[in-house]
Amino acid sequence: MRLALLTYSYSAGGLGTISHLVPLVRELRRIGAEVDVFSCLIHPPIFGEPTFMLSCSLKKLDNYDVIHSHESAGLFVRHNKIVEIYYHDSRFTHNFWDSCFNAIERRALEKSNHIVTPSFLTKKCLTQQGFLGKKITVIHHGVDHNVFKPNRKARTLLRKKYGLKGFVAITVGSMIKRKSARNSKAYVASSFTLSSW
Fold first, then answer.
1. Which strands, in side-by-side order, build the sheet including 34-39?
2. Which of 44, 67, 72, 96 has its CA 20 to 30 A from that of 10?
3. Is there a domain that residue 146 lies in?
4. Which residue has the higher pLDDT, 185 or 117?
């Protein structure tokens, strides 16, 4: 199988929704898929997305069995098998550019042959917006066990250091505005612990 992955950034040091693509491509290649990655070298906040979309539309992608589009990168690509990856609910907007991008992303979702989401909640949000449930597949994010391993000693030390008791949840999300992040220790502590279970 030949697969073209279209994404705005492709780097092991990228943000969460980007950096998961590196191990995904590695695993697809390991099981025998031929994967080519098309990404931006630069990503200006305003012109990056439209420029990359248009450049993708000019690429020769007919030889690929599947187009894997990340964050509507394949909007203008003509192909009969486009899988769009969707991570969040487009109703959450914060500024003019986010609103524009959400409109573009919705069009990409409508055009795609199939949609992959990381959670049933995201799938529910899409079905509430009129997308067919049978067009959406939930594939939860995986964990690289070569990097993340259970460590009882470290867990005990962290609980003692921060005075943690009961159930503890850790988030690895970015501290950015659209995730309601605040630059305060109180916010970090509240998102770090969930101790009433």
1. 34-39, 2-7, 66-70, 82-85, 114-117, 136-138
2. 96
3. no
4. 117
